[in-house]
Design a protein that fits this description.
- The protein has a domain of 36 residues.
- 56% of the residues lie in helices and 6% in strands.
- By secondary structure, the protein is mainly alpha-helical.
- The radius of gyration is 26 Å and the shape is elongated.
- The relative contact order is 0.08.
- The mean pLDDT is 76.
């Protein structure tokens, strides 16, 4: 009889874990680990750092450079996509 009680208790615990459906180890609001170097220029980040949009930079200037290069890359990708659409439209037409 004591064995039956022991078997039922773990079964109850698994049901409550299934109901929550949330993994306690994962927390989406946590920041990533602080790297030793700036993501743009590679300078070491020891005491001063600039954190924006999930990344660490050595200063505001590097953050602005990153944003500018990111914007240019997006524009370039959009132009390439547009050119591919025009090329595929001419071939089929």
């Amino acid at each position: 009889m004591s064995e039956e009680k022991k078997e039922k208790k773990p079964a109850e615990n698994t049901k409550t874990e299934e109901k929550t459906g949330v993994d306690e180890k994962v927390k989406p609001s946590e920041k990533p680990a602080k790297p030793a170097e700036c993501t743009v220029c590679g300078k070491s980040i020891k005491n001063l750092w600039y954190y924006r949009e999930g990344k660490y930079y050595c200063g505001k200037g590097c953050w602005k450079k990153y944003k500018k290069s990111e914007k240019e890359a997006a524009e370039k990708a959009a132009k390439e996509k547009e050119a591919q659409e025009k090329a595929s439209g001419k071939k089929s037409g």
